[in-house]
Amino acid sequence: MKRLQNSLYINTQGAYLHKERETLVIDINKEKAAQLPIHGIGAIFCFGNVMVSPQVMGFCGENSVNLAFFTEYGRFLARVQGKQTGNVLLRRAQYRKADEDPVSVARNIVAAKIQMQKQVLQRHQRNHGNSVEFSQQITAINHVLDTLKHCADLDKIRGYEGEAASRYFSVFNMLLTNKDLGFEFSGRVRRPPTDPVNCLLSFMYSVLGNDISAALQGVGLDPQVGFLHQERPGRDSLALDLLEEFRAFIADRLVLTLLNRQQLKPSDFITETGGAVKLKDDARKLVLKEYQSRKQQKIRHQFLDEDVEIGLLPHVQALLLARHIRGDLQQYPPFISK
Amino acid sequence: MNDVRLIPLAALQHYAFCPRQCALIHNEQVWADNFLTAQGHLLHERVDSGEPETRKGIRIERGVQVAAPNIGITGKLDLVEKDLSTGELFPVEYKRGKPKVSDWDEIQLCAQAVCLEEMTRKTVAEGALWYNQTRHRQAVIFTPELRQRTLQVIADVATMLESGITPKAVYDKHCHACSLFDLCNPKLLQKDNSLQYVNRLFSTEDFDEETTE
After folding, report:
1. Which residues contact B79 (CB under 8 A, 6 or more apart)?
2. Does ipTM surpass 0.90 in this model?
């Protein structure tokens, strides 16, 4: 399998990234803070007021390094992309499939998403004993899976996805086992998140989604043309499709771990006048550090029957989707952990 | 304008190694370097650099660009020798390894000769293959049989690339020498288990987890 390369997250406000021969140099307050060879770097994510020289942008393009910009608060802004490469035959096949036959890919992805949500709940039950609420939701989720299996209507598939999600999130608050700090979750709120838990979830989905967009582009797929998610200008619909497989397994579990281990405190968040909740600099740094170390962990990929670093999963799934679209695989096998 | 797709000479070699590899590289634009390809690049960098020179009445040119729209092929020749007294051309192809059992290197060289013929309208009767491992030049005569076979192979490659279909993987020992191994996934694709796998997605039984934190 391809080598998992490091992602560089630049979080320090006012940092300046420039190029020196084959290396990247990060200046902070006009002083060299780090110098790294470009080989071994897979992605550079800049948060907030981070300056990048045009030479670095070109350098990243040439070396297939994903360079992306986010606001200080983790909202995606832009990505630098090199020359358009990849396989026009694959992209065309992707468009055709999205137009003519999106159901099986969409259904498989939703099923995987639901499995992974269920797994988060079952994991909690194993560690904390059975509870009526959890068992009820798991039974209901199983029922959704059963109905989904034979569903060939895209709108209904989206409906089942929503139903499973609302059941999952209805008990999500109970997954926060450490109540000392007073974190509460009373339902998913987005754009903008109005509590710390939602803020963390949104942040992780955004970072992960960008990793997925880059992986899709890396194998030559168009991240904007999806199967499950409707196209909307400016939206990476296919990246959102693939994100569904990873939300619970990577993002939700990371957020729960951070909160339950008390690695984050309420004072790590800022509430703005309008009610939007945002992560402070140091807290964001901690979240990204934990995410980065999670990416290094290996897991058995059930379909490949190979050990794969978690950070490579988006690339692996993008590759499998491309092979399905090109006719090598009868079905798209989304990611599920055992 | 008549916009024919010219096949790169290198595609013939890729096709000989594996038709799927050829389709992956030339249609799907998949490429990855490994040790073997990097070694090949280095060798060719050495061969391709170097100014034209004349020795004993023979002019030597390296990295000669050719295109032959009539037979539908294009590429770069490692080395062409021109006899200044007769004007005869003599292509030389540099190979990383040693002489092969099959005639693929001869076919590639013959394709080069056919390109030169289309460009210069002169007959190219003979050429040579140089092997890095044996450090030996092996003469190749472009017989009617070899020419026939070469044109047939070019036509086969053209048909495959034109179809846009990437042949299924055939897993074999030589797969491990292929730089596209991870992108091609030949082992995985021998047997398509995706249907069984997908059935598990809808299973309502409990999974047991293997990662522990």
Report:
1. B47, B60, B61, B62, B64, B91, B92, B93, B94
2. no
